[in-house]
Design the sequence.
């Protein structure tokens, strides 16, 4: 299959809290890593050992939401007893491979979690505060071009890659 476009940059993005665009955001949001849980495997017939990936099980995932300064939107996310749902929508600019014309593809990332860390920031005259909220994620879904690429729902036992249920075989046996 040929590559349709060469991804170049995130042209623009916005972050939404329960459908409303967040105010006061910085220009950068670092997305969380997916680090699979593993178990060391060794024994008869194996030369040495290796880390077996435990399908669908991932370590703690944090999402930091950076703000220039504290504001009303910031404080809507600080309760550790209430889950927060954020949606990041971005436009990936790309060059079409055959024509080199500029094009775009949409990216959407949905996060759910509860507040784990509140960093109110620094107060300095004529400077940004560097405030942030850190969520402990229990759900993340990434779409590109309207197609689901990865979905991990730790609470409901869902793990899909490119729309394929990675845990269907396990559920059939348990």
Sequence:
């Amino acid at each position: 299959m040929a590559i349709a476009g060469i991804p170049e940059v995130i042209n623009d993005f916005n972050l939404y809290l329960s459908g409303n665009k967040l105010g006061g955001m910085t220009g950068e949001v670092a997305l969380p890593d997916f680090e699979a849980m593993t178990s060391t495997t060794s024994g008869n017939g194996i030369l040495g050992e290796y880390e077996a990936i435990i399908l669908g099980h991932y370590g703690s995932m944090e999402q930091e939401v950076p703000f220039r300064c504290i504001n009303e939107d910031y404080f809507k996310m600080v309760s550790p007893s209430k889950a927060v749902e954020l949606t990041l929508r971005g436009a990936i600019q790309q060059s079409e491979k055959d024509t080199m014309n500029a094009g775009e593809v949409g990216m959407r990332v949905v996060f759910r979690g509860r507040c784990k860390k509140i960093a109110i920031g620094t107060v300095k005259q004529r400077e940004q505060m560097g405030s942030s909220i850190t969520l402990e994620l229990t759900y993340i879904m990434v779409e590109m071009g309207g197609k689901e690429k990865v979905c991990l729902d730790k609470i409901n036992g869902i793990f899909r890659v490119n729309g394929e249920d990675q845990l269907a075989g396990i559920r059939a046996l348990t």
About this structure: Residues 39 and 52 are 5 Å apart (CA to CA). The chain has a mean pLDDT of 93. The chain has two helices and eleven strands.
